[in-house]
Design a protein that fits this description.
The protein is low in regular secondary structure. It is built from 7 helices and 24 strands. Helix 1 runs antiparallel to helix 2. The longest helix has 28 residues. One of its GO terms (cellular component) is nucleus.
């Protein structure tokens, strides 16, 4: 029988690709529980079901119970139901339910014999090579739902797996050719459109291949109501509809119209035609339908709503009034009476003291007639599992077993065992075949491979493989992150009579041992290589001169062998930051014409250009110029003339008396004065740019007037008047060139002197 479990595993692989495997998983779970010791529990007594005990299996939920337990359960259930509901106790046959799924059985179905799972063998003998409570024969039960085939597994608990037979079936719509399919999953979809005509007889089904009747037409069309007066957009699936208008067609009497709302067929006869009675129904008369029936004037005498009295009013139209006659009424519980109007109900304030059907709570309903309602409170009693309370409505007798199922899992949770609630503490966890998933407590990324377990994992025995401090080698020792060591902390003894306690141990992480790998080590200056143990290696000097070329590339380092910080940008033969620095001055020859020495210390390559300033007078000998030595020595003759020029106007005078118009230049000035000069007449009234200017007639008249005025003045002076200064009539002498242009020369000269002084102060600072 144990061969059925791998068989079911193979079946599940076949079913998983097509169809539902829920029933197959249910069967496999039942087989798993039977194979595991103590996995099956009787929900009534909450005890394990042993292989030698007689059992009974429910046909609804396939739960297994002890036969004595289920017999007592059925007897108690029938007794409680009949004691509450039967007036003639024990004369009616009441069903009893399964404790788990509430599947009902008749009293005749109460188990009295011990059968195997398939029901073929009575009192099956326990066989260690078979499933417990199994006969070992082929099950041969009919599949559910019935398909004509029978189960081929050996006698087994739980439901039969889905039918594995292969049959040739067409698709759901019947259009495709038959294909071989599993009998349990023979319904298949061809993927084509159904295209069957819908009940509206206008449209066709647009759904893909399906079983059964097509769905109602989802489209909308214009449809008329039943009477044909109104039209509206309606669903094709509901073509019949009624509008809100009255029919209005003339009745056969010709006097009235039909007042029925939208209807089909003929309207019928006029409701007022024929013999009619008065409102009280005592007198009859034959009147045309246009005339109303008059009241007869007699007493109405219709029965009122109370059913005891009749209406005392005269024949009238409409409903009768409420009965107001005073009567003596008895309350519902028949304890009290009271005189009151007939239409009112009398309820007293007495509370019922009877116990409800649960036999625990009183009724407490006012004016109870004796048929107390069932108890609507929650039961709340602790169930046999001792974990939950009864969730049912308050009831008599014992509570149903706890319906909860608890999963007892292994340490990692991948393997579980379903047990009834209350058995989880006494059930051993299942054995797990998975590897332990606990995270490592040491530095390794994973533990050594071992099975899932409870408690602490074994000590790690893998190689440490941690990088040793100060080197790149890995530790070859076994893992030492958790090593048991004796604790040095001991409690002091209270006296000599007290025995010393056993030594305590604690887990500690030990450091890695020193690295013993021999490493060829070079000296500081890399002159020689010697083998040194990795943990003891260090820099050492071989005593030789360094010999690296200094930065000046003219001398080498004379210090003793020392370390040099490597720099990828410079070769190893070049000096580093730790080498000595060359302190000699530069002795390289200077370029021709430069009188200054090189300002840098000893250096590599050519000397930098000389940037010192040379003071030199300009060509006009007035301004001191400061020129860079490099520019002056590298310039040719023409450039030298431009450099030594102050760029001001030449202050020299030409022979004509005018100033030279050119900028500061070397050599003599060129006599090519082209300046135009104004000449005055003798009286200095007329100025013209000519060689000779003579006085005109106006000048002569002015001279005569002037002479006459002088004469009159002289005569006046002679007469004793105050002497007046004689007006100077001499021609003013012409000013020289320096006096004429001195204000134009002094301004640029002063500016140049100030600039030279500022430049000199900056150089000094």
């Amino acid at each position: 029988a144990k061969s059925d479990l791998p068989r079911l595993v193979a079946l599940s692989c076949r079913y998983s690709s097509r169809g539902d495997v829920s029933e197959l998983e249910r069967t496999r779970r039942c087989l798993n529980e039977v194979f595991q010791s103590g996995a099956i529990t009787c929900l009534i007594c909450i005890a394990s079901v042993k292989r030698t005990q007689a059992v009974w299996s429910c046909v609804g939920c396939y739960c297994i119970f002890h036969i004595p337990c289920i017999q007592k359960w059925a007897k108690d259930s029938i007794f409680l139901v009949s004691s509450v509901t039967d007036e003639d106790f024990g004369k009616k046959e009441h069903p009893w339910p399964c404790p788990k799924c509430r599947y009902e059985y008749s009293p005749q179905q109460t188990p009295c014999r011990y059968y195997c799972y398939c029901g073929k063998e009575v009192d099956p003998a326990p066989d260690p090579w078979l499933l417990p409570h199994s006969c070992g024969q082929v099950c041969d039960r009919e599949f559910k739902p019935p398909c004509g085939h029978r189960c081929l597994l050996l006698c087994h608990p739980g439901p039969c797996p889905p039918c594995p037979k292969m049959v040739s079936v067409s698709c759901l719509c019947g259009k495709a050719a038959p294909v071989p399919r599993r009998c349990s999953n023979k319904g298949w979809n061809c993927g084509k459109t159904c295209s069957r005509t819908l009940p509206c007889r206008i449209h066709t089904c647009t759904h893909t291949c399906h079983a059964g009747v097509c769905e109602p037409c989802p489209r909308v069309s214009v449809q008329k109501c039943v009477c044909g007066r109104s039209s509206a957009q309606r669903q094709c699936a509901s073509p019949l509809w009624h509008c809100d208008q009255a029919c209005g067609r003339p009745l056969p009497c010709g006097n009235h119209t039909c007042e029925r709302v939208c209807h089909a067929g003929a309207c019928g006869e006029c409701p007022r035609a024929g013999n009619r009675t008065c409102p009280c129904g005592k007198s009859k008369c034959a009147l045309p339908c246009t005339a109303d029936v008059p009241t007869c004037g007699d007493t109405c005498d219709k029965k009122l709503d109370c059913g005891l009295h009749s209406c005392s009013m005269r024949c009238h139209k409409g409903p009768c009034e409420t009965c107001r006659q005073a009567v003596t009424k008895q309350c519902r519980c028949e304890r009290h009476t009271k005189r009151m109007p007939c239409h009112k109900e009398y309820l007293c304030d007495s509370k019922c003291n009877k116990t409800r059907s649960c036999n625990r709570h009183p009724c407490k309903r006012k004016c109870c007639p004796g048929n107390c309602p069932p108890c609507d409170l929650s039961c709340g009693r602790m169930l046999g599992c001792r974990n939950h309370k009864c969730p049912s409505v308050c009831h008599p007798g014992s509570c149903y077993p706890c319906p909860e199922v608890v999963q007892v899992k292994c340490a990692c949770g991948s393997t579980s065992l379903s047990v009834p609630c209350g058995r989880e503490k006494s059930t051993k966890p299942p054995r797990c075949k998975e590897l332990c998933r606990n995270p490592p407590s040491c530095h390794h990324p994973s533990r050594e491979r071992h099975r899932c377990h409870f408690g602490t994992c074994p000590v790690c025995k893998q190689v440490c493989q941690l990088p040793l401090p100060g080197c790149t080698h890995l530790c070859p020792a076994p893992c030492h992150d958790q090593v048991l060591l004796k604790s040095n902390q001991r409690a002091p003894l209270a006296g000599p009579w007290e025995q010393p306690a056993a030594p305590a141990f604690e887990c500690k992480a030990l450091p890695c041992p020193p690295c013993q790998v021999p490493i060829p080590t070079a000296c500081l200056g890399e002159h020689e290589v010697s083998p040194v143990q990795c943990h003891a290696r260090g820099p050492f000097s071989c005593g030789r001169p360094c010999g690296r070329t200094l930065t000046c590339s003219n001398h080498s380092c004379s210090l003793e062998c020392h370390s040099v910080t490597p720099d990828p940008k410079i070769p190893k033969t070049e000096a580093g930051k730790e080498c000595e620095h060359c302190e000699e001055s530069c002795s390289k020859p200077r370029p021709s014409g430069c009188p200054h020495p090189c300002t840098l210390p000893c250096h590599r390559g050519n000397c930098p250009p000389c940037t010192q300033m040379i003071r030199q007078r300009c060509h006009c000998k007035i301004t001191n110029l400061y020129i860079e030595c490099l520019k002056l020595t590298a310039a040719d003759e023409e450039a030298r003339k431009l450099l030594t020029s102050c760029k001001n106007q030449c202050p020299k005078q030409l022979r004509c008396g005018h100033r030279c118009k050119e900028l500061c230049h070397a050599g003599d000035c060129v006599e090519n004065c082209s300046q135009r000069v104004k000449v005055k007449c003798p009286c200095k009234r007329i100025k013209k740019e000519e060689n000779l200017v003579l006085c005109d007639d106006i000048c002569k008249k002015l001279q005569r007037k002037y002479a006459e005025a002088e004469l009159e003045a002289f005569e006046k002076r002679q007469k004793g008047k105050r002497k007046k200064n004689r007006r100077n009539t001499e021609v003013e002498a012409e000013e020289g060139a320096w006096l004429k242009y001195r204000k134009y020369l002094l301004v640029p000269v002063c500016g140049i002197l100030l600039a030279v002084g500022a430049f000199y102060l900056l150089q000094v600072n």
